[in-house]
Amino acid sequence: MQEAAEPLLRVRDLRTWFLTDAGPVRAVDGVSFDLAAGETLGIVGESGSGKSVCAKTIMRLLDPPAKIVGGSIEFRGRDLAKLNEEEVRAVRGREIAMVFQDPMTSLNPVLRIARQLVEAMTAHGRFTAAAARTRAIDLLRRMGVASAQAAVDRYPHQFSGGMRQRVMLAMGVSNEPALLIADEPTTALDVTIQAQILELLRGLNADLGTAVILISHDLGVIANVCSRILVMYAGEVVEEGAPEDLLTDPRHPYTWALLHAAPRIDAEAEDRRLVTIEGQPPDPRAWPSGCRFRARCPFAIDKCAEHPALLPIDATRASRCWVTQAGGALHEPARPKPQARDAQAVAAPQPMLEVRGLTKHFPLPRETLFAEHRVLRAVDGVDLDVMAGETVGLVGESGCGKSTLARLVTRLHEPTGGSIRFAGTDITHGTQAEIRPLRRRMQMIFQDPYASLNPRMTVGEILTGPLLLHGIVEGQAAARSRVEELLGLVGLPRQAMARFPHEFSGGQRQRISIARALALGPDFVVADEPISALDVNIQAQIINLMVDLQDRLGLTYLFIAHDLAVVRHVCDRIVVLYLGKVMEIGRAADLFARPLHPYTRTLISAAPVPDPRVERTRRHVPLKGEPPSAMNPPSGCRFRTRCPVAEERCAVEVPPLLPAADGQLVACHFPGRI
Amino acid sequence: MIRYVGSRLLTSVVMVLLATLVIFLIANTVPGDPALVALGDMAASDPLQVKAFRAQYGLDLPLWDQYWLFLQRLVHGDLGISISSRRPVLDDIIDYAPATLELATVAFILSIVVGLPLGVLAAVRRDSWIDHVARAVSLIGVSAPTFWLAFIMLAIFYGQLDWAPGPGRLDPVSFPPERITGLLLIDTALQGDWATFHDAAAHLVLPSIVLAMATLGLVTRTTRAAMLEALSQDYVRVARAKGLRRWVIVNGHALPNAMLPVVTLGGLAYANLLAGAVMTETVFSWPGLGRYTFRSAVTVDFPAIMAITAIVAAVFVLVNLAVDLSYAMLDPRVVKK
Q1: By C-alpha distance, which of A241, A608, A603 is closest to A398?
Q2: To the nearest whole angstrom, how far is the Cα of A66 from the nearest Cα of chain B?
Q3: Which residues of B touch A98 (CB under 8 A)?
């Protein structure tokens, strides 16, 4: 599409297949695109869409059984697909660099940072070891690593995830490559750190003129950095265009579905159900002959039985869709009528959970034999009420104590101090035997649907376990019919009973986890990041399921998530935690419309919105640095060290959690100043 | 770091003390009266002789006093008088230990020098011929019984081919070098007696191969598994993306990480080689600790058994200490700041 100059990278009809014994897995199956020098290109799509394989193919990082079976990767006049290993090595890290998803595992744990940065530069003979070391320190400084001089001589485990990703970026640009490929670089990071890393990425592109390919499942992240977007589905590019066009007026039903499945942080939701598409992506061993999205497409027409080509819609965009080929837009999703919810809860709110002054201190090993015991103040004086039938969201960066709090209120942890009342009963220090009758009424859903289901038990056994343990049902027949009922409740076929967890996808497993939590008929469900490991569309399905179940069964949720848009969408009230203390509590709509605590304000500001026009009008309050250690929290207000409006008073006086307007509670000496 | 080393050292001392206590208690509870064995049936039927014997060796004291005595003597290097050889046990051990130390060390070096590269190559060239060789070697090494291997080796390389010398540390016609360390290779080298050095080295070949085989198999297998694990890590992919050469990635990135399990195994293996060469020493008429242990056991030579067991325990503790310390050097995460 870009006529002007010769593009930096020209990918044509690229096909990367995994030649397995069970037949070829056609992971990347006919991808074409151009990338101009200095351009920023985003590739978006769900897991298995081929976006990551595509990136690794460009870097030639794939080993057998993966094979480039067709197409070309022209980069500065050479076809990377045809280079031998030694020729590719000269390109890798020198002309094209790559940053990967997980900064915690991307650095070699036994080598110093300096060595890992220096070797990237000396490997290509552009720098001597001494010059490379000096440059490494400069680069770390440029990436915002504090006291870079000392930092280079440390080991990776002495850095946080965000700092490690800065090191990875420094490594990536160390040879001034023409292209930097970033594969989900912020997925493992907190939203505040994500904002910092994206800012850095934009800066590198602007200052050094490095072209960027940013791969992400998050449209907001892509929209924040990229000037052009490719949407991938089933190994193909299905839509291409500028974010302004593609995100406001999608011309492929899959883009449309992605866009509507994710809740927006800037939009008030009339209904808590999200738009989802049915079914699963097709099997990459046998793509359907027609349009690959057809089976799930709400717009499909007869012509879709024929495989569409990626054809231009106008000068700057293209789509692989028969429906929009003529230039027509896709209509807004039909949303169900908003329902008046929680009539009973609104009428007479009964507290389900009352938490007062709750603390949890984890003792740590002594530094020396005679030193004092250090403690990690994971939760440090939290007051919290959850009313029957309501959904309360817990948000905050990693390490703020949200998971510990969830485990305290369900008494998986023993509190250090304070009190917990559940349904009127004090459960603060009850023994497990005393709490067991109440366990029926409170259940948990965990983040990782892979680790939280026993791989050696069938789904039936997983679900009958708690039923028999608590004597809910008597006899196998009754248990079986209850399990069938539960599976129906979470939208799984009853044949699922005889199968093992590994036979299910992530979304289905999370449904099984939910069914397990519901087996005992609880009133109160604590969901610890229940959708974080899932793709956007599956996230929407699980959210819808949880909303449905709440309406049908009158559940009360304590919902922990780091995705603010999801929390805003799902929750009635939100609790903002920072270093084990509550910063602010308020109704979701109020909190987002008028955050009173500077921390809340910065958190909201850090969350990207998948709409460049909105992004431009939003006020950004960047949050500097990373949370201090919970072992040694700052005096006074714990947030003061990162607060843009802190004054001397904040270091001396701990701000109490006091009511502001409309029942919003805030712990700040200067509420609403920012 | 200093704190880490200090705490490891302290733990090691406590471990050795505990080990001596356990040894002492076990030795005193097992049935079998050393007086009976040492004096023979005739003399043992005379209560006076038995009493004199017991008094001579401190066997008539209360248990704790015996232990205290044992500890005090241990600290002074006095391991008691061997009941069967009637010599100080320490002298016996000084006579026998160097042979074992020499054999075990050569076998250990052999298994590392061969096993480590073989394991690395097998992992890097997975499913190639070298991988198959590595797997065959580890299978044979781990599963072939030592005595069988020893006899087969002797039969083929000494009996049939005559490539290697027979049992013993030296040819009967060679004169042993003047004793300095008791390690023949070192003593001969120090004295410039290269003919005897050559003879001693030749005598070491077969027994050290036999002794090394089991360790070699374990080292190869562990290295291969650890390397495969390390090569599949994200940081290796990152290293490739940096454009590093393959051998830099293998040796500079994967190997240091793969060394951790190999070091643990190597330490235990060396300790085992030092303590468990009975079979090999017997077949090769090797005058080492293994044979001394065997002899002491059948004669119920308590002072000797206790001394040997204490030495073995000390060897294990020392080797574990060495493993812990090398861990700290290999993996910065072990020593927390």
Answers
A1: A603
A2: 15
A3: 238, 241
